[in-house]
Amino acid sequence: MQIPHPYLLFLGDAPDQLAAKTAQGIAQWRPDWCLGQLRLPGAKADLGLPELEVARAAAEGARTLIVGVANRGGVIDESWLPVLLEALDRGLDLASGLHRKLADVPALAERARARGRQLFDVRHPTRDFAVGTGAKRSGKRLLAVGTDCSIGKMYTTLALEKEMRARGMKADFRATGQTGIFIAGAGVSIDAVVADFISGAVEWLAPANDPDHWDLVEGQGSLFHPSYAGVSLGLLHGAQPDLLVMCHEPGRPHMRGLPHYRLPDLEECIEANLRAARLTNPEVRLLGFALNTSGLDAEAAGRALRDVESRFGLPAVDPLRTGVARLVDAIG
Amino acid sequence: MQIPHPYLLFLGDAPDQLAAKTAQGIAQWRPDWCLGQLRLPGAKADLGLPELEVARAAAEGARTLIVGVANRGGVIDESWLPVLLEALDRGLDLASGLHRKLADVPALAERARARGRQLFDVRHPTRDFAVGTGAKRSGKRLLAVGTDCSIGKMYTTLALEKEMRARGMKADFRATGQTGIFIAGAGVSIDAVVADFISGAVEWLAPANDPDHWDLVEGQGSLFHPSYAGVSLGLLHGAQPDLLVMCHEPGRPHMRGLPHYRLPDLEECIEANLRAARLTNPEVRLLGFALNTSGLDAEAAGRALRDVESRFGLPAVDPLRTGVARLVDAIG
Asked: According to DSSP H, which parts of chain A are helical?
């Protein structure tokens, strides 16, 4: 699976900016792939991209319309259908990360077949995976892990890819979630894989490579999140990381969605991740920290970064505030 | 889902006893549910049950024909179809734990529909699960964990159920694998659940119950098996166990199917399981050990049990050789 670009980002009637988070991530990390945005009347989100009708986007060479909006229930809204059908008519493929599949909407499935177009439902794996083997692969791998979900793992990994490529290093972001897949154009929605194949799917996603090549694997969840830790552990084992980056939000009151669960101590979380990672790569080490300090003012953020650095003797960055150069320096 | 019993155990043309392992487990643990066996010409397996044709089994009250034989690829063999169709015609449901679904064989699907019979494909979850919450539930839970796969977790849990029920305790085996599901008549094939829902599925399987009721949850895999550890961790978190029983085979040379992976040290494995289990139940403790000493003579087995007991100060049994009474004594 490789989603053809450039993209036309469809925001539907997104009631606020948050509903278009997926599209925003794509526009931020792959500006060259994004020809423009298409919004229905009443949409409140805005990516600052050129407004393009389908016909115009097709004329400018758009290859795929991305459904870059989320809604309650993750369904394809009836009101979106005219635009989606027109996109198929004009030769674009469609891609969506929603729970409800494009391919399960009869009108879209029929039209896509008739026009010879592809429907990418990136939340739903479309291939079978083998069971993981844990066999050592060539090439280098880095995995972003975290104290919780939604703490900046994807952002950190993409920032590392950008910085490493700018330095001429061979580095590829490997996507394990929907937004990441649109940004990479490929990947596996790892939490949607059948449980038996979690580590096997990651072995497939980040296969053997050149000795100086880095796969930068997008992490998911946390070993300390009671809903998702199984996914996080299978991902850790399958990624076989040489380096871990620990993502954390200082001051977050509790695990995402679970007020009765506190965040783990950083020490405890680091130890648990290193211990588990050693099973498939005894050489694994912690590279440093990516803190999400968006809730702090500049002074408090600086203090939080210095505090973690002095406690652990390793670089700590906030990818948004400071960039990730100091992490890349430490790869050595 | 509740598979109706009594069962007729279908062994097909099983080339050896191992191929009928599933049927053997059912016959051992639910003898009262098993009216007889049905073997095709050439079958080498034998459960020692009465030989029953379908007509006879139906007359004696059989409710479900269980495909109790495994083969390469996990497919429904063409040569089995006449028997399976006759079973449907005579009012039996069909159940299979094979990879390939009964429901995907058009002849069977059509006949089942026509006769109003059910097809149970127990390897494939037929319902959706919610994401796990980690919320504390009433009732008690015990989980069998292990240093590796296929080390006696199901056997141990079933032996505990039998012993606890004999003592008048409220105890239910909760099946997480195919053979276990036939034995319980219900359950979830946990390695076939979508990764996001591993712990949620176990929360559903072992729900809130009476304060003095024990759910005895069948474990799967091992935190130290690089192929399946994600499943094991989600299972551990979802089960929220009060007690763990550690299953181990002294002298096993390497992890099942992976000659390049040694078995973990017992201490290391106990610590990892307790540490992970504390996330959803801080009160968890290790009850004792179930050793699989089938590869040892009686003297060496006795030595292995005594050795583990003295190292850890907790009871160690071999469910086959010694029974599990000493584990149940220690529940207190």
From this structure: 21-29, 54-59, 81-89, 106-115, 153-166, 178-184, 198-205, 229-239, 266-277, 298-312, 325-331
Pairing type for strands B64-67 and B93-96 reads parallel
Show Cβ contacts of residue A279 under 8 Å, excluding neighbours closer than 6 positions: A134, A237, B224, B226, B229, B261
State whether residue A54 is helix, strand or coil.
helix
Q: How far apart are CA A235 and CA A233, in angstroms?
A: 5
pTM: 0.95
Beta carbons of B192 and A194 less than 8 Å apart:
yes
Instruction: Burial-class residue B86 by CB neighbours within 10 Å (0-12, 13-18, 19+).
Output: middle
H/E stretch holding B36 reads: strand B34-39
Judge: A233–B233 Cβ closer than 8 Å, yes or no. yes
C-alpha A13/C-alpha B81 separation (Å) is 53
Hey, what amino acid is at B125? Answer: P
**How many C-alpha atoms does A328 have within 13 Å on its Cβ side?**
23
Residues of A in contact with B233 (CB under 8 A): 223, 229-230, 233
Q: In this complex, do A134 and B192 lie within 8 Å of one another by their Cβ atoms?
A: no
| C-beta separation of B237 from B287 below 8 A | no
CA atoms within 13 A of residue B240's CA, in its CB half-sphere: 27
Number of H helices, E strands in chain B: 12, 11
Task: Kindly identify which residue of chain A lies nearest to residue B277, measuring between CA atoms.
Answer: A226
Radius of gyration, CA atoms only, chain B: 20
Interchain CB distance below 8 Å, A196 and B192: yes
Number of residues written out for chain B: 332
Please compute, for residue B172, the number of CA atoms within 13 A of its CA located in the half-sphere on the CB side: 19
DSSP helix/strand/coil, A149: coil
User: Chain B residue closest to A256 (CA)?
Assistant: B133
Contact residues, chain A, for B134 at CB < 8 Å: 226-227, 258, 260-261
For residue B55, give every residue at least 6 positions away whose Cβ sits within 8 Å of its Cβ, in sequence order, or none. B86, B90
Q: What is the ipTM of this complex?
A: 0.93
- What domains appear along chain A, each with residue ranges and CATH number? 7-121 (3.40.50.720), 140-331 (3.40.50.300)
Going residue by residue through chain B (332 aa), what tens digit of pLDDT does each one get? 899 999 999 999 999 999 999 999 999 999 999 999 999 999 999 999 999 999 999 999 999 999 999 888 889 999 999 999 999 999 999 999 999 999 999 999 999 999 999 999 999 998 999 999 999 999 999 999 999 999 999 999 999 999 999 999 999 999 999 999 999 999 999 999 999 999 999 999 999 999 999 999 999 999 999 999 999 999 999 999 999 999 999 999 999 999 999 999 999 999 999 999 999 999 999 999 999 999 999 999 999 999 999 999 999 999 999 999 999 999 98
Asked if residue A73 has pLDDT above 90, the reply is: no
Task: Please tell me the distance from the alpha carbon of residue A126 to that of residue A67, in angstroms, as a whole number.
Answer: 18
Give helix A266-277 / helix A298-312 axis angle, nearest 10°. 50
A40: left (phi over 0), alpha (psi -120 to 50) or beta: beta
CB A58 within 8 A of CB A115: no
- Contact by Cβ (8 Å): B174, B217: yes
C-beta contacts of B268-271 below 8 A and 24+ residues apart: B268/B224, B269/B145, B269/B146, B269/B147, B269/B222, B269/B223, B269/B224, B270/B246, B270/B312
Are β-strands A243-248 and B34-39 bridged in parallel, bridged antiparallel, or unpaired? unpaired
